[in-house]
Each structure stands twice: as structure tokens, then as C-alpha cells.
Fold this protein.
Amino acid sequence: MCFLKWGGCHNGALPMIDKSFASAEAALADIPDGATIMIGGFGNAGMPAALIDALIAQGARSLTIVNNNAGNGDTGLAALIAAKRVRKIFCSFPRQADSWHFDRAYRAGEIELELVPQGTLAERIRAAGAGIGAFYTPTAYGTLLAEGKETRRIGERDYVLEYPIHADYALIKADRADRWGNLAYRKTARNFAPIMASAARCTVVQVREIAQLGALDPETIVTPGIFVKRVVRIGSSLRKAA
Amino acid sequence: MCFLKWGGCHNGALPMIDKSFASAEAALADIPDGATIMIGGFGNAGMPAALIDALIAQGARSLTIVNNNAGNGDTGLAALIAAKRVRKIFCSFPRQADSWHFDRAYRAGEIELELVPQGTLAERIRAAGAGIGAFYTPTAYGTLLAEGKETRRIGERDYVLEYPIHADYALIKADRADRWGNLAYRKTARNFAPIMASAARCTVVQVREIAQLGALDPETIVTPGIFVKRVVRIGSSLRKAA
Amino acid sequence: MKKLDRNQMAARVARDIPEGSYVNLGIGLPTLVADHLPKGREIILHSENGVLGVGPKPAAGEEDEDLINAGKEPVTLLAGGAYFHHADSFAMIRGRHLDFAVLGAFQVSVAGDLANWHTGGADAIPAVGGAMDLAMGAKKVLVMMEHLTKKGESKIVERCSYPLTGARCVNRIYTDLAIIDVKPDGLHVVEVVEGLSFEELQRLTGVPLKRLLTAA
Amino acid sequence: MKKLDRNQMAARVARDIPEGSYVNLGIGLPTLVADHLPKGREIILHSENGVLGVGPKPAAGEEDEDLINAGKEPVTLLAGGAYFHHADSFAMIRGRHLDFAVLGAFQVSVAGDLANWHTGGADAIPAVGGAMDLAMGAKKVLVMMEHLTKKGESKIVERCSYPLTGARCVNRIYTDLAIIDVKPDGLHVVEVVEGLSFEELQRLTGVPLKRLLTAA
């Protein structure tokens, strides 16, 4: 009997939970065309650069991406867009000084944009992880971004109805993990990672260090391993390049 | 110009934020009759015993209480109920072997009960703190506890519409605080405290220790001071008695 | 026939929980399952008051009032355990992250409806706790209960007479007489205790049962 | 008249923020306010990427790529600062826990409608970030902007011609010419720069202004 799905499954024979993978390539090997993928990070803080590079190398196409931005410069998410792998993107702030790959693709009609206020983006991701079917938020009421959406007056305020955003995969970065997939973050690199981890069926984490089980202080574990399927240690040289 | 309300206000003259209060009595002095009060804790873990004692001594009546249970034995919340101060209670699990004061008051029709599934109770409190107007949850669909409530099918599942629970005061317990009101908890004593702190206009915290500003590791601060108005240090002898 | 006692039932449930599962054990009978998980098999227990990685009872004198489970009993934390607040804990449940919830029951219907929180008595004070969240939230809901009431009536019923905890949520029932899967086409008997025939189980249960090839 | 420069505007806003306030400073002009907060007055700055207690820019070479503000600039953390994730950060905003948000603007209407995210141009790629959350969530929304466009048109208007960020959300407007409160009965002038008469301000602004006793 095995009710479990989406497991690490690379070491099923060993009588021990071990979510670590040998490489970013191995951890992303099964991503199919058409997948919805959340990518953590806000600016460089928390951006899983090595996983994005591996996703580009892996080759999956027609992806739906969820990220706060739409890529910067010529690397990372911008390179994924430049390689025409992205069919649709959910984000709050696509236009930036150096978002030229997105800008071109958007103007050419190659990429669909769902623009979501940043707090609504975060809450929709959190709702997916928390099993909430929909929620009413005051944000964007009376604006272009609420056009066509259901609204409701509750008490003295007007609200917009918003639905969860679920994903097949989340690619995030943390500072330290253990073999159960527990995660501790560093400073503002935490940003979207904990909620994205909860909203995806298969969460893959790039970390600086995989510590012994029990080495992470339970009071500093922000993402318990229940939300994590795969962990890859990426050397600090790569981290610096991110 | 002063836009601020509900501040500590006991030391307005000093050019420094200091949310500490000298005693539980002082911290609860302004609670009026008819207030809605959230009380943290699950069992003895996280129960703000000294604050509850002070609330009983303070004398406010006709209170609405939000707590997971409805009191145990003859102390704490049970004593508040025995003193006939509670008009209504929101909780998930009122009936226990030693909930005799609640049982009597309920059977006598002296106290109104709003029974809420535990996760819905937590999410309604969280929604109040997060400015969510209402949310759809699958919990309790098709049961007595959803009778008369609005429902909706979203995708493949049925949901019940639930509204936030706001409070005037939250009385909670934490392990350590600083003068800005940042809080760190200990083990499962965390339970309802962080969400209750966010859902009340005036959150009062009982702590074991008030540390120097900066002494709490920012990665272990679970409740930032923005959610906290008043902090009272309660000696460890009282803590043991809790 | 050899009815299973409470510990044998718990051991039978424990055998079915695979390595790496995240599991919530309800208060009462299901809590016993923890004592029967095979040594060396890593299973991560969740308690809804805000902890993953619940370990065994502490030694006498080692109790910590800040570390308890949902039954308000003192517990310990395994290496690799973590704490979180109530909204996060129930987000974990409602968001379908738990592999299994093991729950007690008054009744289970042929459709998988669960009744385990309220007798419906006029004088009864209702109390639900996390039961409705677990029933609707866990990926698989396993029920543990005696097969028959003290009066000898089947607790597996056509329709629950007690108020529901959740509709169509039970996946498998473990009783002192049998293991039964709840499927869209009805109840499938997976195992029967030694000395009990399928026909006798059928007679005791009342509602139609299907015989699996593996059934005794 | 003596128009205020950007730093003078920032200093004027800073003067009005009381001890103990929790404040979010929008990207651009509002960020300057941080440099003008009076020394020794404790004000706690929020940045929506997940930090309270934002401190000054780090010294050159001391930047940490994991510690940035919402403008993606390196910052430091004050003693007493804390980190949290994005959903918690916006819960803080939406749940009305911030005392002030200071935001830039293209236009503000007499009703307090704010337009600051989108020019509405056909070729413009829209980007909103946290502006709509801050506009609807902070207890008080303070707008900082030049009073007139480069073409000399008033940015305080009867109705916004640009797409709205939020309706009826602005409480006070700080410009290079005046400070104006948005109230249910209209716009009240609180202060005017030296050398500018109320009548001249009224002429430049276009929409009706009310004169406070304290106005020059």
C-alpha cells in the first residue's frame, strides 16, 4: 500500500527520510511542459538562481510562472523568458528598468500577463497552501485590477473576491535545511518562499547547507518539512554569483 | 498632531518607545464592560494566567470571550465564568471533564456559545488580523455547524463562507519580549497567541522576561511589536503556578 | 473469532503507515497508534496545537508544560521537529498536506460520512475541536472504532443518525473485526479477524459489503 | 515664493510622524523621509518585502544581498527589528496595523482618490507592486508630490484621469507648495510655503480649497 505521491522517491529503499538530491538537474528532471511553477525571491534576496538555471537547461516549455517580477537583465527568469519557455506569468511588478526580455515578449503578444497587487498575490498563494477556496480583500476595489471581478460590501467596506493560485512546483531558496526538509531562512531572503512552499505539490529548495537532523533550532524553522519534497545544496560560490 | 490611538500612553513624555507596564492591573485598567477579549493558550501551554486573574479582579462585565476552550477546574477562565462576567464565548471545545462552571452557566442559559471548528476559529482570528473580509473554507460543509451559512461550490469542492472575529483586547503569554513589544514564544505555548495579537486593537502580553532591545534574535521573533501594545513581566513563581 | 483488542487495532493501523508519512492521530483510541509504529520507520506525527515531529511521552519529572499534544498530554519533540501557530497548523490540515488523519468514530456511513463529535442529545453540550478540519483536510482519513456498539448494533450504517463531522471523507475503517475500504461503489472488506467468516461479518454489519480476493 | 525642494518636503513629512509610529515609505520621493526623521525619535519603518525596523543604508562594502528594502536597495536592521514572510507582511498592511503609508502620486482627487501606478497609456506595461495594498491598508495615507506637473497643471484634481490605485484613501497631501488635508467636506489647506498667498494657491490648484485659521 502506498498512498503517497510526489515523494522524493530517489532512495525509496533506505529506511530513512532523506529529501536531499545530488543536483539541481536531478531535482527538476520530471517537470513537464505546461507546468505551473512558482519561483521565490524578491530581487536577488531569496532568488533560487541555481534552480532557475537548471530549469532553463531542463527544457520544459509552455510554463506558467508565478513570481513577484518578470525578470531582470539577461539571467535567471529573464533568460527563461528570452528562451520562450513562458506562456503566462503572474506578477505584481513586471515593468522595471531592465525587464527588456519580458517587455519585448509582452509587446509581441508572446506572453500572457496576470497583474496582481503584491499583497493579493501573496494572499492568493497562501490561500492555496491553506485550503481556502476564495477570500474577500479590500485591495484593488474600485480599480482596473478589480474589473470583472465579483465584489461584496461587508460591514463598512467594499471587497473583491480572489481565488487561490496553486502550483505544480515551487522553486525556492533557503539558508539551511535538514534531511526532513525543514527550512530556516536568512533576513529578507525569506519573502515569498514559505507561502510558495505550501502552495505547490512539489517544492524544490536550493540551500547553502544541509545540517544534521536536529541541528536547526525548532523555534527558527519557518518552513516545516511537510511542505518540502526536494532539497539541493548549492555551494557558496554559486550563491555569490546569484 | 496625533493620529495614534490605543497606545501604551503611560509614559508619553519619554522620548523612547516602551510598551512595558508595571503590573497586570495597570495593563488591564481600561477594559470596559461589554468588551470582546481574546485569551490565548491551549491547555496550560500559553495560558496568560496572571492576566486572567487581573481581569477577574478588574471587574469588567458582560464580556465576549474568544478561547479554544471554556475553562477548566475552578481557576482562570472558569473562575471568570463562575463570576458571571461572560455574556458570550467563541470556542471549539467547551465540554471537558472539568468544565463544570461553563456547563452550569450554559445549561442555565446565562452564557451564549458560538461553537466554531478549531481551524475555522484560528482562520477567522487570522482573517481579522489580516484585513480579510470573509473566506470560504471546506471545513464543516454539510454539518450542523454550517447550518444557515452561505455556501458555494468552487472547482470540485463545497465551501462555507466564514467571517473574521475581531477583538478589543487580546490577553496572551509569551516567553520573552523587548520594549518594542517583539515576542518570542516557547514550544507549543505559541498556539493562538500570534494570531490573536494581530486581531485585537489592544494586545496585552504576559512574559517571563523583558530583554534589552536587540537581544531577541530577529529570526526568532514570531510576533513583531507592531501587534503588541502592552507587556507585563510576571515572575517565574507565578508562571509555575499557571 | 478473535476480536482485536485496542492495542492490536492500533498495531494494525500502524503497520499500514509508510515511511515518511505525515500523520495526525486523533484523541483517544487513535493516540495508541503512536506506541505501535515500527521502530526505525520514520513517521512524522502532527499535533494540531502546533507541532510536527511529536515524540514519546517524557520520563516522569521531565514534563514541560509548554510542550503538549492536542490531548493536552505532555510529549517530547523528535530531532527534526518544528513548532508553528494555530492558523499555520490548521492551514497544514485544511490545505491537504497531512497524508493521514486517524480518527475515532461513533458511526461511518456507506458513503464515507463520519460522525464522531456529537451525540445530538438535547442536553449534550457540543464540542468539536479539530475533528471537522481533520476530516475534510487530510489526504486520507482512517477511522478506528469498535465494530459494534455496546448494544450490538453496527457502527457502519446506511446513513449516520448522529450529526456529521464530515461528508464523504472516510477512506478506510479499522475495527476490532475487520478492515474495510470505503470506495465510490461501496464498502470493500480488506481483512477479517481469524475465525470470523465474511458471511458472519456481513450479518453483523447490516449494510452491504463487497468481498475482496484477499479477504478471508 | 519659496517652493520646497525634495529634501525640504521630506523633512516636513518627517516632522509630522510621531514617536512610536509604524510607517511604510513608498519607493522614490517618500524614501527620502527616512533621512529626515529627527534623531532620537523612535519610528519603526516597515518594508513590504518582510521587515520591520529598517535602518540606514549600510557602509560601502557592508551590503548584504539578503537584507534589502522594497526598492531592492541594501539596508540594515535596527536593534528590535524583525523579519517575516510576504503573506504576513501584507496581512500587516491590509489589516490596518501600519500607522502611516507615505506614497508618491500622479494625481489625488478632492475625494481622496489616489492615482500613482499606471499612466493608462496604451503601450504602457502596467506594474502595481504593493501600492494598492498600502493605499487601502494603512491607517493614514500621506501623499508626497510636486503640486504641478511639468506643464503647470495641478495634480490635485476634481477626478483622476489616470487609473486609480485606491478610492477615497488619501488623508493628507504634502506638496512643494502646501500641505492639504483631505476631509469629507473637501480640501483644507494646513500650510502654505512662504511668499505664496492662499488666493494664488487656489488659482494654481483649480479645485476648491478651504482656508484653515492656521493657513498663511
